[in-house]
# Entry
Amino acid sequence: MNSEVLSERLLEFAVRVAKVVDGLPDTKLGRQIANQFIRSGTSPVANYEEGCAAESKSDFAHKLSISLKELRESRVWLRLIVKADLIKEVRLTELIDEAEQLGRIIGKSIVTVKGQIKQDG
# Structure
């Protein structure tokens, strides 16, 4: 997958997260999750884009690692939303799957870049 396609998928993920956040109930729990989830769900695309302009492979790997951590956090928020019955699971299944897929893609990219760093090293 090329960087433009991945960037677009991450951007679309952020948009979908924002729509879920807008659909959360205006309760204490809903607001707390919304505040955390909007940050973790929009961060991966920003960090990925920063990584694409990295000054070194190490910097790129670091930015990808942040993206991966934020995707994992987003997946937890999605699971919590479902467990707390804030939004029905059927409405979030595809987004949870996308978070997992993006996490696997970013994770493999990190392994690849770190392997290149060792070879260059």
